[in-house]
Design brief:
This protein has 10 helices and 19 strands. The protein is α/β, with parallel strands linked by helices. α1 packs parallel to α9 and α2 packs across α9. The chain starts with 9 loop residues before the first strand and ends in a 13-residue tail after the last helix. The protein binds flavin-adenine dinucleotide.
């Protein structure tokens, strides 16, 4: 590993999917020397633990716009990056067991339809007709989008990273940022654990669940909570079709999709914030109970392993993207609340526009500004894969 450059136009802190996407789109815009610093190995954070879900079903226009912009990138990924993103457009099926959830799905469908997007509201009989393995007697209905699905977080990360390097960005692993120097309300430089320092006018916080710690380096309060989520995997299971939608039970935030010949089953998320990433025995019990409730035939499936990762949750479950007014040059791309993988292409494109052109042009990101919390101008997203 050679020395760090003494200066850069932009330094990105964090080598997860958000950091590498921003590095790629900045390099593509010819934004000068771009340096990404990752303290461990790229992708070892939330990105490597993610379920890879990609959907257009959201409750707010800005989230849907982020999805549409990103979907275009996923669809053309192989051609642009020379890497197969393993995108499986199997569809997404949200299930509502209570009136409140059913209202959310109806309101979403209405919003999506006004935006010209396809979404089907299905009654329980229709759900059973299409996917007979699902228990429907406690449901009011579901909403289904057939072009959604899931992709491989590792493959997408590799595509962005290779692309960014090809265009001249420096992506450095094993390099922890320990401090950010600020003078007269302006970012000056970042300091790393080895004692090296990179002078830069722009620092991007892409530290995922650790974003609050990075913001604290410049004395800012960024309300991003790390929350553990566990996932489990089964042995090959042939008693379900080889292809079916990613199914989410809104009531408990449980979900399921194919993972090769086996299944990926969502485990619980913690009520409290922490950086704990251990897998618990009780979590496996919760997962088995929720899975059997919705898909009784899973009685014959066998959970073989599990893992845990951290969500980076913001108070209104929307991303926090943009500069803080009090520190010039400090830009956040945080708080993705369980949808950072699927929105990473849009975030990269928009943050690159913000830095290179002074403004995000493709989508107006004003609603996502960091100071909205203290201004009390929140935009709530109820359609998440977790309950809190
Ligand atoms: C179980 C689970 C399932 C999920 N499923 C989905 C899904 O289906 N679809 C979806 O869209 N999203 C999903 N998500 C959310 C998604 O994984 C995240 O939103 C996304 O990965 C965030 O990417 P990131 O780059 O911001 O964070 P990370 O991937 O966590 O990257 C941040 C990086 O910053 C580094 N870092 C931190 N501090 C420093 C420092 N001081 N110096 C240098 N480096 C530092 C860390 O080592 C880390 O690698 C899921 C998350 C979890 C936990």
């Amino acid at each position: 590993m050679g020395p760090l450059p003494s200066r850069a136009e932009v330094v990105i802190i964090g080598g997860g999917i958000i950091g590498v996407s921003i590095a790629y789109y900045l390099a593509k815009k010819g934004a000068g020397k771009v340096v990404l610093l990752e303290r461990g190995i790229m992708g070892e954070g939330s990105t490597g633990k993610c379920a890879g879900g990609i959907r257009t079903q959201f409750s707010t226009e800005i989230n849907i716009r982020f999805s549409l912009l990103s979907l275009k990138v996923f669809e053309g990924f192989q051609a642009e990056f020379g890497v197969d993103p393993e995108f499986h457009p199997v569809g997404y099926l949200f299930l509502a067991a209570h009136e409140r959830q059913w209202q959310v799905l109806n309101a979403n469908a209405q919003l999506m339809q006004t935006m010209g997007l396809g979404v089907e509201l299905l009654d329980p009989d229709e759900i059973r007709r299409r996917w007979p393995f699902l228990r429907v007697d406690d449901l009011l209905g579901g909403s289904y989008t057939k072009g959604d699905g899931y992709a491989g977080p590792y493959e997408v990360l590799q595509g962005f990273a290779k692309g960014a390097r090809r265009l001249g960005a420096m992506l450095r692993e094993g390099t922890e940022v320990t401090g950010i120097q600020v003078k007269k309300g302006r970012v000056q430089a970042v300091e790393v654990a080895t004692g090296e320092r990179v002078v830069t006018p722009v620092v991007i916080n892409a530290a995922g669940p650790y974003a609050g710690q990075v913001a604290a380096m410049v004395g800012l309060d960024l309300p991003v909570r790390p929350v553990r989520r566990q996932l489990f995997f089964t042995d090959p299971f042939q008693e379900l079709p080889s292809c079916f939608p990613l199914v989410i039970d809104l009531e408990h935030g449980w979900y399921m999709r194919r993972e090769g010949e086996g299944l990926l089953l969502a485990g619980p998320q913690d009520a409290e914030s922490s950086f704990n990433e251990r897998v618990d025995f009780e979590a496996q019990e919760w997962t088995a109970a929720r899975s059997l409730h919705r898909v009784p035939i899973l009685e014959r499936a066998r959970i073989v392993r599990g893992w845990a990762g951290l969500y980076d949750i913001s108070p209104d479950h929307h991303a926090i993207v943009g500069p803080f007014p009090e520190i010039r040059g400090f830009i956040c791309a945080n708080g993705f609340s369980g949808h950072g993988f699927q929105h990473s292409p849009a975030v990269g494109i928009l943050v690159a526009e913000l830095i290179a052109e002074g403004q995000a042009k493709t989508i107006d990101i004003y609603p996502l500004r960091p100071q909205r919390f203290r201004e009390g101008d929140l935009i709530y997203e109820p359609l998440t894969a977790f309950r809190d």
